[in-house]
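Interim report, section 4.2 (structural modelling).
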Amino acid sequence: MAQDRRGGYRPTAPQNNFAVSATGGAGNSGKQPIRVAPGGQYGSRTASVQQQKGAPMAAATPTAPSPSAQGPITPTPPVVHPLTGDTGVSGDPITHGAPFGRGGGPEVLPQGFQGDTRKTENSQIVQQYAPALMEAMKAPNVPDSYKRFVNSLFKDIQGG
Amino acid sequence: MDNVTFLPGSLYDNINKFANSFGYDNAGIALTLAQIPWKSVEDRNTFIESITGRPVQGDDAPDPTQRSTSGIR
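Predicted structure of the assembly:
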């Protein structure tokens, strides 16, 4: 029967493929299969196979995705301390050492920092901003508190 | 005509509020902070109150009967 060509050895049949476990899980014990590049000199394939059998490559482990695949790496921004928050160093409020606000006044500052330069600053301000400050005094309905402030500035300067 | 010089949030309004809230002796700090372009009057007032721990000063209405003591109007 020439037409009857069924049967025969099937290398791809599951029962003939001993390297694959029917239940899954077995195989190369977590190692990569031996791979040899085609071509090469006579006998080089055998040498390559023997080399790989002696030191098989470890199975590929899942690696972190590359940055390009993930997108640009955004650095973690530093923690921003609120401007009016406590320093957290010694528990002192932010205005500790300042002549206003919570905490101690300038008396708590180290010796070298206790020079009161406010009078000098005020005189510099009056010299620099006097024309503008005076001009605003001419506006209608100037708040009384502003008048008191400007009068106090000039009074300090005139008083020496 | 309304006084635009002291409109809420204007430079001179800031000067008035900061100087009166921080004290006249701290005019340097007050004038520096007054020149900051505050996002809103509320932001400025919140900053002042958080620093001083007191309500914002300088809300006096103009009193035409009061005269300055140093001769400056």
